[in-house]
Amino acid sequence: MATEAAQTRNSVFGDIPLYAAIVGLLAACFILSAIIPPGQSPDEQSHLERAYRLSKGHVLLETGPGGSGGPVDDGLLRFISLFHGVGVGAQMDSALARAVLPQIEWAGTESWAQYAGTGYYFPAIYIPQAVAFAIGRYSDLSIDHSYQLARLFAFTCSALLVVLSIRLVRPSFAVTALLTMPMVVFQAISATIDALSLGLCMLAASSFLSLLSGRDADRDGARIIVLCLVVFVLASSRAHALPLVILPFILAWQRRSRACSIAAAAVLLCAVLWTVYALLAVHDERVVRNVSTIHILRHYLTHPEEFVRLLLHTLSIGWRFYRDTFIGRLGYLDVYLPQLYLIFATLALLLLAVLSTKWERGTQGERLGRLSLVFCAFASSVLVFAALTVTWTPFPSTFIEGVQGRYLHIPALLLAYSLCGVPTKQSRAFKGVSMAVYAAFLIAGAYVMTVALIDRYWLHDPSYARPLPSQRHWVPLAMKSGDVVTAEYVPQANGSLNAATFILGTYAGASDGVLTLRICHTECATGTVDVAEAQDNQPAYFLLDHPLVVSPEVPVQVSLSLSASRHPVAVWSSHDNETLRLTEDNGHDGDVVPLFQAAIR
């Protein structure tokens, strides 16, 4: 009896660091939620509109102008429009946060909104946000308060799913690291369904492994029901999670259970029926192509070698973009984290994966479970690219469009669970190294994420004060190796010119070479940028080797040249731009002037 009591006590106290870490992460997320403006996650506005319709009792989308969608409250649309402006380049200020937002109320009138992209998701995954919006309307809360409530409900439900998963199978450091990447944390704070999807994925994997390992057999019935429900909701809400429908079948085969087989068949049937219904019922007019999705699907099914070549070529070009958006390119993909951190985070994730791997054979059921999760992870990854090939990419094409690294979070989580299985006690040395690596990963991520978010949404640099033309007026000025663009620039103020920016389009990271900026006044100064390290569609900062004293009375000569490049780079320009006057441009349209800003202090 004393031994049993001691074991219970050790188990309870052994969990204290884990739950203390969870509480700390929750606190950090609430702090970050105060920094991140509403609606900054990609497609969050569509998720909000879908949740609103569900809160009004409308489960399915309707067909109207521009595709599938439905009527949405005019107050919510105004709120969404306001923060869409922040997302595409504007910044927050205290007047907006304190004075404007409380005045945006539920209007009671509705206008048509198109949000076809959410029509493929099973409505159950929007329940937390829908409940929050219903409470907000009936309690006469402002839309901002209703939105914050939706954030809170979605985050709380996601956290509860994670806690339930932990109680079934203790996650490895690899799993924990994936859950605390900046990209995952950012999405978890938003009112989207990303965090809920990951929570459901965790619960499915942990339920599956615990059932196959034979732990707590007296609770098997409840866990089988949970597994089937979770797999159905996840597979019908995320197309690339469809491979998870094999998990109940594997469990039924391992147990030779007729009841499990019936439940597995029901999950598969319901998931397939919903997917087919969504494909037929949802009208998405955002992508216009000359051939149908069915035609493209049939082509690649009959010519699989073409899809393999397309996939390999896409990965060879876009791997850097996928890595960045997997770990953390936040907001409307315009909040960049330092390249040094991204390299460190990649190495830390790989090291934690190795340290978390369980090398013992384990039971036969556990081995089966781990192999099944490896298959699901691989199939899910391929399905991400396949789905966007047939639904989003022009046909024919040499590159699969629309893929972001965060779409691979579910496959990565499944792979992390497969590496560890049901964890056993690690040696002190292994555990100590894992804790040290994870602590460094967590602290570094929290720091760079906070700095990047504050810099993007709240801080203005007065040195680059001249406003740029609207992004919809930007046009690319393509440069290849050897090209030189020269211009005349009239400084906007007296002072020292010590740095300047051009906005580069790097074709999702495919561009390379060295851009050299040379500015001449009474003397010349030079700055360079490694194009391979530049951020796509963002300013590239050229720090001059020494400052130049300038004044508005005396123009300076500017030249930009590209060298050692195998792939071109676009310098974003505008017709409606008077910052530079081109004097030589290698045959480019003389009316197209690069977007140039100088730091004069």
Model description:
It is a single chain. With 601 residues, this protein is an alpha+beta fold. Helix content is 52%, strand content 15%. α8 runs antiparallel to α18 and α16 runs antiparallel to α19.
Topology record:
Blueprint: H1 2-14, H2 16-35, H3 44-55, E1 62-64, E2 67-73, H4 74-87, H5 94-100, E3 110-114, H6 127-138, H7 143-168, H8 173-179, H9 182-189, H10 194-213, H11 220-237, H12 246-255, H13 258-281, H14 293-302, H15 304-327, H16 339-356, H17 364-391, H18 409-420, H19 428-457, E4 474-479, E5 484-489, E6 495-505, E7 514-520, E8 524-530, E9 538-550, E10 556-563, E11 569-574, E12 580-584, E13 593-594, E14 596-600
Antiparallel strand pairs: 1-2, 2-3, 4-11, 5-10, 5-12, 6-9, 6-11, 6-14, 7-8, 7-10, 11-13
* Percent of sequence in beta strands: 15-25%
Number of DSSP strand runs: 14
The helix content, as a percent range, equals: 40-55%
Shape: globular
Domain module tally: 2
Keywords:
single chain, 601 residues, alpha+beta, Jelly Rolls, 2 domains, 5-stranded antiparallel β-sheet, 19 helices, 15% strand, globular
Summarize the structure.
With 601 residues, this protein is an alpha+beta fold.
